[in-house]
Amino acid sequence: MRVLVVEDEQVLADAVAVGLRRESMAVDVVYDGDTALEHLWVNEYDVVVLDRDLPGVHGDEVARTLVKDGYPGRILMLTASDGVEDKVEGLSLGADDYLAKPFAFAELIARVHALARRATPPLPPVLERHGIALDPANHTVHRDGTEVSLTPKEFAVLQVLMRAQGTVVSAEGLLEKAWDENADPFTNVVRVTVMTLRKKLGEPAVIHTVPGAGYRL
């Protein structure tokens, strides 16, 4: 899952990003509305955690722009305005969910996972394929009933492959979804991560390399 955090309080924004990355999400962080729109025009995010009161382009205008352009990602408004009228207004702008500050981080994580499940086509809470069961909310993976211990990045790569439902995912696609914008596009980190993931999942191998195209589970 790839998430964009748009929050002008840099300490809070960076803390949110660290917490989301611990959940195996690829996270980019920006601190104003103008930069947010630049990132959104270039990248496709599953969820946008959006503060309303932003410098530059206001968060409300960012939300309106995404809705008008039919952006596929879900919007979670994260803001200090917690009155009923504020929530109604935020949702009417096109936000899919609304969380007031201060908030419990566990609730933020749960809401981000819930928004990601509203993707098209909708995905089940637990992804299952070839005897592998991946639970994003509880951050667990089992193969044939036995738990498999994965690093956050291995978990993220497996989740991208399982969400692809048998279609091929290119190395570039994995890099885009499982790593943030600071990842080196010329690195071999995707190949190495897939190799260690294959080993941990055991035999028979379920992740297959499609020469010249990418990987398929």
From TrEMBL:
Residues 124-217 form the OmpR/PhoB-type domain. PROSITE patterns: OMPR_PHOB, RESPONSE_REGULATORY. Signal peptide: none annotated. It comes from Nocardiopsis coralli. This is Response regulator transcription factor. InterPro entries: CheY-like_superfamily, OmpR/PhoB-type_DNA-bd, Sig_transdc_resp-reg_receiver, WalR-like, WH-like_DNA-bd_sf. The modification 4-aspartylphosphate is found at D51. Residues 2-116 form the Response regulatory domain. It comes from the Bacteria. Keywords: DNA-binding, Phosphoprotein. Pfam families: Response_reg, Trans_reg_C. Residues 124-217 bind DNA.
